[in-house]
Amino acid sequence: MARKNEIMKKSLGIDYERFESGSIAFDYERMMRETGYSLEEIIKIQREANVGNTPLIELKNLTELARKVSPTGKAARIFIKDEACNPSGSFKERRASVSVYHAKKHGYKGVIAATSGNYGAAVASQAAMKGLKCIVVQEAYDSRGIGQPEILEKGRKCETFGAEVVQLTVGPELFYVNLMLLEETGYFNASLYTPFGIAGIETLGYEIANQVKERTGKFPDVVVVTHAGGGNLTGTARGLIKAGALDTKVYGVSVDLTGLHMASDTDFNRKSFTTGHTGFGIPFATWPDRADVPRNAARPLRYMDGYYLVKQGEVFYMTELLAQLEGLERGPAGNTSLAAAFSLAQQMENDQIIVVQETEYTGAGKNPTAQLTFAKQNGVQVLVGNPDEEVPGKNIILPEHPSMVKAREVKLDNLKKSYIRNCIQHFGMPNEEDIKFLAEDTKSSEDFVRRTIEELKNGGLV
Amino acid sequence: MAKKGDWVKIKQIVLEPHERAENIPEDTKKTPLTMWVKGILMEDAEIGQKAKIKTFTGRIVEGILVEENPRHIHDFGSPVPELIKAGMKAREILYGGEGNEQV
């Protein structure tokens, strides 16, 4: 593993040391500028790869339902960006298109991605389009050899596009296998967390801002983003800013899987969501540089205006309502932000606009019926009642009434403090430059950072 | 017996339990890290025996032959009446029940 940095450098072509300060701070914007592509270049790359320009759909019936059940009788207009229309069926193709373009341009013969999610299918699809070879490394099975239907479906899709799918049992050593494959093949590391990957999502925020403005005459008030590793939120927020939508609030949403351990063999098949959940959302917000690259280009706290949790049962429920009331069969994972939007809209005015920033394809394995059947087979009860009582791994509670769908707020300041603490634990006490960086990286102020450091010192936490 | 040229799936132990990472949960640590890969069989082999395959990317991988022409078995699952009823109820709230059929 001592060769890790060398393999990484070779498989990415980025020398991260150029942007380092030697302590906590690093030059994020310079990294994005010098290793990424401009928005104009990315729009061109994606157009040629049939990615983006997806429809923006107004969910009139769900908005009407929200108004019927809202305590004030009011609810914002809900729109959804139909990212399922990308070639492999998700927004992840925006990330993949830039990574695969970059790999091809620099003469790599193939690409490797470590992911059990839609990203694998996206990389496989883009690699197929560009004639590159592709390996997708999946955490797919528990020790009994039983796999989540959603992950198996994604494996099938990768294979359909001619990708080699390497399937593993549960465990973080997946990254060791990934590294060995990078060394063996010399392929490009299509990591989710490179500047290319994040820059690829900027077009999504950019399109949302412009489409909403064209349709309604103004920018959206709120954009809700399903949050896992942080790239979706970071890229979307950067795109909104580039379009001039400076007052639009960006909220992250994750499925609450509190209590389930992400690396546990027994917990693995007791969760119905493989992404967009707290098992990624919280650790990646509070320590983004845990990723498979030295400096993660996805830095959600830099852009997040709020963070909300929803329950598994609520997401399945909203997936059903999206199908039955709007005629759109999508998700469910992408509908995490839809569940939150349905609730948040009720705290807004009728003339305000809230945008659900993505949908994803569905089908065998991914459909809620497949996932709930699998949950039942693995000892998880499916009930109807109050989602507040849901216990991840034990039950899934579908709301009895639409008014019971709730976006539960997570205190952002606590996440910011936790991030600052992690930075200090890794690098030591911050200097003046670090304090300035931490203020930017947490969307707070130098004063907040200084107060947090004092608090942590007084509590004996650093 | 699987024949040379068949599309097959093999399995390989990557890490034995005692070789696994330190910082993982105890239940996971008791199990080997196992890997499955598919490809074209290079020589005739029996299920449960050693086999060599050529993958989609042209890599040669060795392992234990576990399946010939491996099928994707995931499906749509069983209908979930709780979900179906949730949709029906939402329509009722929105459109006002059976007496108020939306035209």
UniProtKB/TrEMBL annotation, chain A:
Lineage of origin: Bacteria, Bacillati, Bacillota, Clostridia, Thermoanaerobacterales
CDD domains for this protein: Trp-synth-beta_II (cd00640)
Keyword entries, A-Z: Pyridoxal phosphate
Keyword Cell division: no
Positions of the Tryptophan synthase beta chain-like PALP domain: 50-356
Protein name: Threonine synthase
Gene3D superfamilies per UniProt: 3.40.50.1100
UniProt cofactor(s): pyridoxal 5'-phosphate
Automatic annotation (TrEMBL), chain B:
A Pfam family: OrtA
Domain of life of the source: Bacteria
Designated name of the protein: 2-amino-4-ketopentanoate thiolase
